[in-house]
Structure formats: C-alpha cells, structure tokens
Predict the structure.
Amino acid sequence: MGTASTLRIVFVEDVPTDTELARRALGKAGIDFVSVRVATRAAFLEALTGADPDIVISDYVMPSFDGISALKLARERDPFLPFIVLTGSLNEDTAVACIKAGANDYVIKERMTRLPFAVKEALALREFRRGAAESDRRFRESEERYRSIFVNSTAVMLIIDPEYSVILDANNAAVAFYGWPREELIGKPVSEINTLSPELLGERMRDALRLKKNHFQFRHRLANGTVTDVETHSGPISLGGKTYLFSIIHDISERIAAEGERDALTTRLAHYLATSPTITYSFGIAGGRAIWRWVSENVERILGYSPAEALEPDWWFSHVHPEDRKEVIRILPELVREDVLTREYRFATKDRRSIWLRDELRIMRNEDGSAEVVGTLTDVSRNRKAEEELVLKSAALDAAANAVIITDREGCILWLNPAFERLTGYARAEVLGRNPRELVKSGMQDEKFYRAMWETITAGMVWNGKIINRRKSGQTYAEDMTITPVSDKDGRILNYVAIKNDVTERELGRQRLEALNRGKDALLREVHHRVNNNMQVIISLLRLSSPDSDDQSVKDTWGGIGRRIQSMALIHAQFYESDDLANIEFSISLRRIVDGIRVEHPETASRITVAYETVETFLDLEKAIPAGLVFAELVSNAFVHAFPDGSKTGNILITQRAVDTGMLEIGVRDDGIGMPRDFDPPSCGSLGMILIEGFSKQLRGEVVFSGEQGTTAILRFPAGSRDAESAPTDRLTREE
C-alpha cells in the first residue's frame, strides 16, 4: 500500500457516475484512498505500472474493454493483486465466470454499500496468500536442504510426548510452519500451539493413542501470534520402548477460507434471489405437463404466493390471464426448437391484481439426455404502461396540426408527422435521412442567421424564431419554429425536436395591416401639417388686420388671440414632426411655447431668466392642446404682470413632474411682485382666467395659485397611461 492508511485504487470503468458511486461508498466506510479511472486496455496497463495499485475495481462489461480481460492482465502482473468486479445485475453465470477467472469478489452496482466489505476482505486475503506463499517457499528450501529428516517429508510433522504433553521433535517443515526456531519448538508444551483447553486437548491425545480417532481439525497458534486452521492425522509410535504420538499436520486455512467464500457466495446469492425484482424458477416436463421444481423466495414478495403455493400443480397456468393462455401455450414449441423463449402475458397476483410479466425461458440439457427448463419472471407493468403512453403520444403527434420532425445531432431527419408532409409537400420517403436545409431552405435567411440558430441549440438551449422556407412546389411560406435539444443523463445532445407552425396567412395579414397603418400615419401627418399651416395663415392675417391703435388693451387682445392660436399651431407642428403620431413629448412643447412668448415680449424677455425642471412626459392631442393653452396663459401672465418695473430683472421656473397619484403637474413660478392681496382667480372675470378655468376642467384637472414669494401657478391633471413611463431627463437648465 502507498502509505500505512491510504489505498491506491484503479477503477476500470467507462461510466464516471458508477465510479463516483463506488468512491462515495468507500468514503462513507472510512476507507482512505487515492484513485485513477481508466477505460481502455492501454490505459489499464499503464496504470498497473505507474500507479502500483493496491486493488483493482473493474466494471464487468464495457464497450471496448471488459472486466475479465482486465483481470487476466492484473493476474499476469501480480497473482496476489486484489481484484473486484462490478456488475449491473444479478446473474449466476456472471458470478461464476468472475470467480473462476480469479476475481476476489463481485459487487452488484445497486448494492454498492457492500463494496467496502469486499475491499477489506480482498486486501486481507492478499496478505494471507502472500504469507502462505512465503511460508511455502521457506518450506521448499528447508525440504531441499534437509530431505533426510523425517524421510524428506514436505508435511509438518511433530513427535509428542503424551505423558508430559510436550513436543519432543519437529521436522524443518514444522519449524517453517510454526515460525519458532527449532530449539524453541522442541520442548514447547502442546497447549501453547493448540487453542483447545488442556483438558480437552489431553482427551484428544488419549483418543489418538487408543486409535479411537486419529483425524482431527484444530486451530494452531503460530509464533507471530496468528491462529490458523490445521488438519492433523495422529497415531501412536514406539521409540525405545516408550509410546509417543506422531502427528502429521496440514495447513487447511486456504480451504477453510475458500469454503467460507463459497458459503458467503451461496448466502449472497440466496439473498440476491430473495431481494431481486426478478423471480427465478425451474421446472421439468413429464407426461406433457410442466412440473415446477423450484422457485425463488421473492415470489411471495412480488406475486403474493408462498414458494409452496407456487409449486402446487396448475398454479402457474390457472393464474395466467384467460385471454393470454391460448397464446402462451401456442408459442411453446418455439422453446423446443430454439432452446430459448421470451413471452409477455398478464398474471393474477394473490391480491387479485393483474400485472404484466416477462417470462424468459431456457432449456438446460444434461449429459444423461434429461432436460430442465429454467426461467425468470419480471414485472414489466411499468414498461407496458410506458409503451402505451408512448403509443398515445405518437398518435397525438401524428394527429397534431403543427408539423413536427425529430432529427439526429447532425440534423438528419429520423421521424416526421403527416402535418410536415402537408406543410412542405414532401412525402415521408423523400424526407427520412435528409437534412431539412436540403429540402426547404429558401435562401431568404443569410448564413449568420443559421449560425446563430445552431450555436443556440448545440449549447443545449431552445431556439425559437420565424423563418421563410420553400415548399416542394417552389412556393415560399412563413413558419414559426421552435427547436428543442434532447440530451441524455450526462448532458450529451442526442436529438433535436422541431415544431413548425405555418404563419404565412398571419404574415400576409400583418403586412397588409402595416401598409394600412403607413397610409393612416401619412394621412394624420398631413392633417397636422395642414392645420399648422392654416393656423400660421390665421396668425399672419391677425397681424395684418391688427388695428393701428395706441390703446394697450386692444393690442393685448389681438396679441392674446395670436398667442393662443400660435400655441395650438406649435403643438400640431410637433405632432407632424414626431415619429409617434399618437403622442408627443410635452416638455418640448413647453419650451417652444415659452420661446414664442419671449418673442411676443422682447423687452421683458431680456430681463427674465427662464429655468426648467422637467421630466420626459408623453401626451396625446386631446390633452396636449388644452394643457398647452393653459400653460401659455400662465407664462404670459408672468411675463406681463410679474415684473412691471422696466429696470428690474427676474426669474421664472418652469416645472413638470409626474406624481404618485398618476397626475401630471406643470408649474410656473416667478419671483416677481406677487399677486394682489384681494386677487380671487374664479371671480377675476378676465378672458385669460376664463380660459384657464375652462381648459383645466376639460383636462379634468385644476390650477392652484399661491403668492407667498412671487407667484406660483400649478396645473394638475391626469396625464394618461404613458406618464407611467416618464423618467427624469432634464436637470436644471437656463435660458437668457
């Protein structure tokens, strides 16, 4: 072993999960080890030399290498190297083959918890056999050197004085066997090498002297403290007129160990048969009838019948389902012709359930010409249910309206449903074994498209997308396709399943709708353009028709009319410019309206700084025009009334924000002279206040005035569904 406590293990296994199960079983048992896993003959030979293993654990069946071959290679290198075989199922032939080939033990993968015990037993047996081989070597050398002693016998021989129960003489074989030097062995009391009590030992010697019995099985103690099984043949001899006991001693420890292994194997086989999911049985044929001779005990656990009940005449036939009896009897001649037969039928359990059994039979012919049938019964009800479910799913796929194909990992078609034939125009025989790109590729997607699709599915992910393909007739069609990879338990992709939905009509409808929408957008854009142009004409006419009067109220009236028309025109112009004809970003409208008012009042604009705190907010035409008109009145009031002193500078802050209640607030705040103490907006009666009140009600909102420092006016109204998307975009900005 590599160290005093660490084992070196070579796993001959092609399935990593089985190796991991074995490692966990050994780790849970507290066995400290290092290991290497190999799966080929060359790698195993290299591991035998390079790793110098203490033990080999090998799978019985592998694709390119098998456990028996590995065992032969291991035995050629080291006849004492422990070797344990892992097998996937209980099979008496497999067990016998492994033991005959020289394996120390075999372990069923489903009983991996037994592996640590098998490893410990194999290691102990290796040490014992090496010791026994060393003892044999020393014995043979002693025999060659001292052949004359005890007639050159290779057997362990002792001459015992029965009166004092001590060893008078011992041949060199005895010296080698017991391990004491010759001078120590001679004169040693027999009770020091025999584990029997002195009283019982004396009785056995007296029996041998009187020849009542001369064949005994003892356990003898060796010089190194170990105890081994021996077989002695003892009898009286006369030397110098005195009777002594002459004993020939044979080491039977290996035979006892082999018998123990045989008994353990028999016990394990009995246990495996009792716990196996498969019932084992045998029967003979006499007078044309099957006479059951033996059945494994697990028949009671699986079918509910005791072994005694199962051996009763007609037990099997009477419990085969009535609808299946005729068929199972009809195919019996096949067993005689082929020596093997497999059949499935329904069988009644003791609790009156009906289950499906797979019955596998084989004729065993003896040398005397007699024959016996051995067989196994396995409950395959779950498999039958899975098969029925598979048939149902296959029928469902066949009947599905969507086209479905299954390909191998290279994309060659293995299966298709009738809907695929209808979709593409290809018959099943034309499709199987071919790649879909050979059949339906239209060339309307570039290689980048297909490369991205394959990168997705080969990475084990589902791909979904729309693709334009071509039918057998040459006609193109659109389809929604989903491709799903199918992987094994180790994550290796085995197949791809593609589900195709013909969306040609839907695509044509979408294209028609897009064409209609483009026409509608063009019409709306033209409407906004013409409205804006007409309003600009009206504004120009108002300016040309403005009365030449020194009366400031007249000028203000004409200017107010033009400003209000200009505000509406600006909004129509913004709708015309917008990519989204349904909504405009209203903070842009606020700036444009302010810019127009600054042009209307150039002297005041030169003294006022306008700042903005706004968020991006979208309004439709129904809200944008009344909100713009109210805002224009509020800003105009600030320009006209907040800073009457022509030499004083001032500030106006424009705010726009969405509040949690789903309302939009637009504020105009100045630091001018403020409102008069007796100012009451509802009773003011001016045209501007009437417009403010009327349009705010149209918006289902309100305008609130306050005048603690300058004047603050806030328009609050529900902004609609898109203000939920509003987000702060403009921090504080200023315009001179």
Q: What stands out?
A: Residues 400-502 form a domain with the Beta-Lactamase fold (CATH 3.30.450.20). The radius of gyration is 52 Å. Residues 721-736 have pLDDT under 50 and may be disordered.
